[in-house]
Amino acid sequence: KQHAFLIQCLRKSGNIEKLRAAREEMNKYFPLTPKMWQDWAKDEISLSSGRGSFDDIEKLYERGVQEYLNIKLWRDYLDYVEEHDQSVSQCSQSGLSKMRDLYERAITAGGLHVTEGSKLWEAYREYEMAILTINDGNDEEKAKQVQRVRALFHRQLSVPLADIESTLAAYKSWEAEEGNTRDPDSQVDDVPPNVLSAYKKASEMYNARKQYEDELSDAAESEANKLQVFLKYIKFEESFGDPARVQVLYERAVSELPVSSDLWMGYTSYLDRTLKVPAILKSVYHRATRNCTWVSDLWVHYLLSLERIRASEDELRHVFELAIQCSFPSMNEYLNIYLTRVDSLRRGMPTGLDFELIRQTFVDAAEFLSPQLGIEELLLLHAYWAKLECNIGKDIAAARAVWENALKKSGCVLEVWQHYISMEIEMGHTHEARSLYKRCYSKKFAGSGSEAVCHAWIRFEREHGTLDDYDLAIKKVTPRLKELIMFKAQQEAKSDPSSAPKETSYANDSSQKRKPSKMTSKVQPPAKKRKDNPPKKTMSSDDHRSKEQSIDSHLQEAGEVSKGKAEAPVEMKVEGESKGGNTSSNQPKPYFYSDKCTAYMSNIDLKATELHIRGFFSDIGGVVDIRLLRDRSTKKSRGLAYVDFSDKDHLEAAIRKNKQKLLSKKVSIAPSDPSKSKKNREAGTSFKD
């Protein structure tokens, strides 16, 4: 609109140089309307002088008729050439050939236009009749010219046009002037049978189309209604299977509704299916993408069409670069264009294209799309890229680099790891796939992804690994799965306290067990649990419990200890045990913590709970149990805790989080040292004695 307004202002001011520059600038980005081309040509004609001006104006008309079908613009073009071209006005042989070729082009472009096509036929006939009048002296040439005029009448009478009856009358009249009819008032006398048959068929065809033409006239002020009428009209024409008539109807439609993407999509698809003429396809796609730059499907179809007609790589690259400079509603549409380009390059590899073109296209796509594209689409891009690096580029290191870069940006997304692992498995690289499982099994993924990757590792080792590999996977995965189950249970308890047991029940139970205990006034220093004397437990009636169930019972007993005195990992005295007493042989002894993989935390915010501590270590995983020390009387946190980990690797990772903030305080984290705790307690006892 701004371009059009500027052109109007400059036209009124009369500044022809700025006006010409403004028109060229607008046409650089947008097609001009037929009216704008007519005004431009008229302005240039008013200032024209000499042969050079004629050539420039002729080029202007040529550019105009290439953009839209407009009968008035064609008539202006024909009249201008007929009047100002010296070779045409002098009726030289070259001039006659040039003018006839131009008329034939006009007839091809708009001669089938039902309501206005007859204007082009009439102009063509008038031109040939004018030539006939100057050939009076040469009977042979005159006879040839008469036959040309008669052939034009016959051709026009076979076309369903709005004024076909008047054309027949004009034909009868002309034949009468030439002395070839006895009754000019008759509609059928002396008309060749083949011409009469074609005329009747054309009349029937016009009558079948008249309803659509009437509807177009009625819907002139409503673009939406006009579009619907055109679509119905086009569907009707397609049912007859005449590509030329369908093409002209599409041209009529897009000239009146130039920014209708539905019309352009339908038009280009029809040409791809039927005509497949390279020059026509290029012209229509070029105009379609200039009118509807924001429709990515048009650009995609444009690239595919160029590939079908064996267009050059330079032409394909030019169209691709134009496409990615446009503004599309979503990033997925840019992705589709990039992938279409890669598809084309991949198919062109046998012709000698360099794989570096594919790689660079992927690099550009990843750089441009990654910040805004969804994870599913990015996975599609990276998976395709890595696959081509392996299969065509024969570079497994480059394929791995693709996935490693993806992990840097989306390492918390399970699907990225799955695609990476799948690629290694497909290539037969089981060692590399196993290394990836070791890297990702302890990571936190959304939903049930953490459990899924653990089970996937075990399944992988069952299918591809040795027994040692399988055992190692089980050893690594089991504590992780237990941790995930416990965390899930705590989350459910937090969301619905009535549906799950509370953690404080352990403390209550332990306190209740200690009440009836008759301890001596002098407390003996507790001794360490000897390795050759494992704690006895009361067995249930089911003697076939699994190893995981045994771990669960230990974790529950550990919870009881955490709510009592947990100053050091020592064994508690049980009921009935005193200075000289014996315990009941059926009484189970409490669970003993070895502290081999335990971290001691201090300076914990008093508001922190076990869930906060578990969340603090969620990034490294491996947490087996948490023992938050509480005051016996108030049950409030003392700011100290022991955290048990599944292995030393996780313990070391936890210690590296020393001095990081948990809630509002920086916590201190160190390995738990039971020997120090024992020495401190013995020293305290001696001092009291």
UniProtKB/TrEMBL annotation:
Where in the sequence does UniProt note compositional bias of the Basic and acidic residues kind? 532-578
Q: Superkingdom, according to UniProt?
A: Eukaryota
One Pfam family name is: RRM_1
Q: Does the keyword Transferase apply?
A: no
InterPro entries in alphabetical order = HAT (IPR003107), Nucleotide-bd_a/b_plait_sf (IPR012677), RBD_domain_sf (IPR035979), RRM_dom (IPR000504), Suf (IPR008847), TPR-like_helical_dom_sf (IPR011990)
What main location does UniProt list?
nucleus
What the entry lists under SUPFAM superfamilies is as follows: RNA-binding domain, RBD, TPR-like
Name of protein: RRM domain-containing protein
Q: Which organism is it from?
A: Aegilops tauschii subsp. strangulata
Query: What broad taxonomic lineage does this protein's source fall under?
Result: Eukaryota, Viridiplantae, Streptophyta, Embryophyta, Tracheophyta
